[in-house]
Amino acid sequence: MFISTTCKENRITMNSEKLSTDYMICINCQKVLRKEKGARIPPPPITGPTAFIPEKEIAQDNPVDGHTNLLFLEEYSTTGRLDNTTQIMGLHPQYLESFLRTQYYILRMDGPLPFEYRHYLAIMAAARHQCSYLVNTHINEFLQVGGDGEWLNGLAYIPQKLKNLNEVNKILAHRPWLITKEHIKKLLKTGENSWSLAELVHAMVLLAHYHALASFVFGSGINPEIDQDSSHSFRAPAVSNFCVCNGINESNMEDVIFMYSSPGTSDSVSELEALMERMKRLQEEKEEEEASQEEMATRFEKEKKESLLVATGAFEDELIPTSYTSRYVDDPSFGYKDFARRGDDHLPTFRAQDYSWEDHGFSLVNRLYSDIGQLLDEKFRMVRNLTYNTMAIHEDVDTTTLRRAIWNYVHCMFGIRYDDYDYGEVNQLLERSLKVYIKTVTCYPERITKRMYDSYWRQFKHSEKIHVNLLLMEARMQAELLYALRAITHYMT
């Protein structure tokens, strides 16, 4: 048996028996490295739609039924490909149907924006998180709809009208609470490069959609698809020139090994039972006595401040794109910063009762961009109400409180408060490892690792963890839209 691998310009063929004793192979770039004393060989790379879920377990978790197959066929007939994101979302066919309908509408149906603008905005949005998977997809789509190839050289080559969206794109992606009516005014009143309200709403929906979709792609470990134009060879991820093998040494080899192995499950059963017990206790307490408005406001402020402490230590450094995706990014060092900074006595809070999706955002977006409000509303409702009444091995379980805690925790990190929600539930239902995962996927998706994915809900099915990612994606998208639409409303009034 022989192992053949390519690194840069050189092809190396070696006997695998000798390789196992003298050398190691990088799991990312397949570079052959001489083993240092005490180093271990990482397992081979995981293939299939996602690096986080073994391919055989995807089929076991949720076999493809006739409805899912039909959705796959329709998507293939529309785009000429069945991407890995669609396959993983297929674990929840009801949601997938709503997602595909919405994405088809904003990309391919009649609307305010030219088709080449739509795909270029998708590139700009995905590039904020260095998501080469989505950038590559929409570079191809952009060219297929007749986009000017010169634009792909970077933001310096695009029309001024598109350039003007750079500021809103970066703020919406990382700190949406900073968007004001002044940003809207500037875009609408710039002479020949002005945006119309309808165009701007279409653009906001596209940007929010692809920021959030980047969270799902990273959170689910989506692999690049087989490149149909390169004889079924995998397209290399282009997020960075850095490879994990560059940093391998005896001190960090253990972490590399861990990222590609399953976590221990000795305590996972007891963790599951404890979570179910907390859910039951919360329901009983709610039936007995509800907390006062003052107490719920206090609990929100406490949870908002505590979110500062989740995972922040790991993200002190700036992650600046170094690959070709950087050409689509303006001000690359601009990223998520906790809206509630330590020592701030005037923490900004967006009260959902003052500007909610149901009472305000939905009607505005539907009026300015016909029918999209209805499609988005159906998608938000679908993912929030989606349930199979199961938790791991348990059946007939009401998971409403758990789903609501996840959704509201995302909004809490973006400064959005629901007056009628008791934020004490968040701390009782979401363990720290899950909070770290949620914050990373939502705010720093490009930094997610398999280790983070494996660290929470170890007894749950993969389909249940993908459901979490769907909740995170949609909660993030709605949060971005609420801030953007509120700014437009303030401008209009």
What does this molecule look like?
By secondary structure, the protein is mainly alpha-helical. The protein is 52% helix and 6% strand. It is built from 21 helices and ten strands. The chain has helices at 16-22, 55-61, 66-79, 84-89, 93-108, 115-127, 132-144, 160-163, 166-174, 181-188, 197-219, 253-259, 268-288, 293-306, 357-368, 372-385, 400-413, 424-429, 432-443, 450-455, 462-492; strands at 2-7, 10-15, 23-25, 32-34, 226-227, 233-234, 350-351, 390-391, 394-395, 416-417. The strands form five sheets. A two-stranded antiparallel sheet has the order 1-2. Strands 3-4 form a two-stranded antiparallel sheet. A two-stranded antiparallel ribbon has the order 5-6. β3 and β4 form a beta hairpin. It is globular and about 60 Å long.
What's the helix and strand layout?
Blueprint: E1 2-7, E2 10-15, H1 16-22, E3 23-25, E4 32-34, H2 55-61, H3 66-79, H4 84-89, H5 93-108, H6 115-127, H7 132-144, H8 160-163, H9 166-174, H10 181-188, H11 197-219, E5 226-227, E6 233-234, H12 253-259, H13 268-288, H14 293-306, E7 350-351, H15 357-368, H16 372-385, E8 390-391, E9 394-395, H17 400-413, E10 416-417, H18 424-429, H19 432-443, H20 450-455, H21 462-492
Parallel strand pairs: 7-10
Antiparallel strand pairs: 1-2, 3-4, 5-6, 8-9
